[in-house]
Design goal:
Helices cover 20% and strands 31% of the residues. It is an alpha+beta fold. Strands 1, 2, 3, 4, 5, 6 and 7 form a 7-stranded antiparallel β-sheet that branches. A hairpin with a 2-residue loop joins β2 and β3. The chain is globular. The N terminus is likely disordered.
């Protein structure tokens, strides 16, 4: 394999994360989802009758190359990794990827190890000790690891475009850091806000 092809392959596995949203080609409704303030979980619940977190795995892993600087790690190293699909009425709307350095302690993130299929977002936004950094945004090409994992997780459901749009945010609690990346799947554009009728 030529050096040029190797370099191209490496670039496909990296994303350019920016603190400003600059995707003029992305549909306006998608840009609205990307810039959602507050809990994404709460917004997804408002767009579904039955919201569910499908936990794909939670295990030790090696962090992605474009996560090293965000986590302030000296090199690409081992982390706790959690990946889930956020489903609205059985439809997968978001693929979420969370990493926590192995140096984090139970007092830093006391509930992380026992989340199961509970929402991480609800935990983060309900904890007064958690500090949230600015959102960063990126386009993920089809060779990026998270784009590949999203396709694999969806299996027969997969109907993904060549480019997926994602955002990420670094959270801090005590001395611990936690990086959450949310990859928005095309089906998120089909969601409609649910109107709850009051019983008379």
């Amino acid at each position: 394999m030529s050096a040029q092809r190797c370099a191209r392959g490496a670039s496909l596995r990296l994303a350019l994360w920016r603190p400003q949203l600059f995707f003029p080609e992305a549909p306006a409704p998608l840009r609205d989802w990307l810039t959602t303030a507050g809990s994404l979980t709460a917004r997804l619940k408002a767009h579904s009758h039955a919201f569910r977190v499908q936990c794909l795995h939670q295990r030790p892993a090696t962090c992605l190359a474009d996560e090293v600087a965000a986590l302030d790690l000296p090199r690409q190293g081992r982390v706790w990794e959690r990946e889930v699909l956020l489903r609205c009425d059985h439809t997968a709307a978001v693929f979420a990827h969370t990493v926590v350095p192995l140096t984090a302690t139970a007092s830093d993130w006391p509930l992380f190890g026992a989340l199961g299929e509970r929402s991480l977002g609800t935990t983060l936004f309900g904890d007064p000790l958690v500090r949230r950094s600015v959102l960063e945004f990126a386009r993920l090409r089809e060779g990026h690891p998270l784009a590949l994992r999203a396709r694999s997780a969806l299996g027969a459901e997969a109907a993904l475009t060549d480019i997926l749009y994602a955002r990420r945010c670094l959270y801090r609690r005590r001395r611990g850091t936690l990086l959450v990346t949310e990859v928005f799947l095309p089906s998120v554009l089909e969601l409609k806000q649910v109107t709850i009728k009051n019983e008379q």
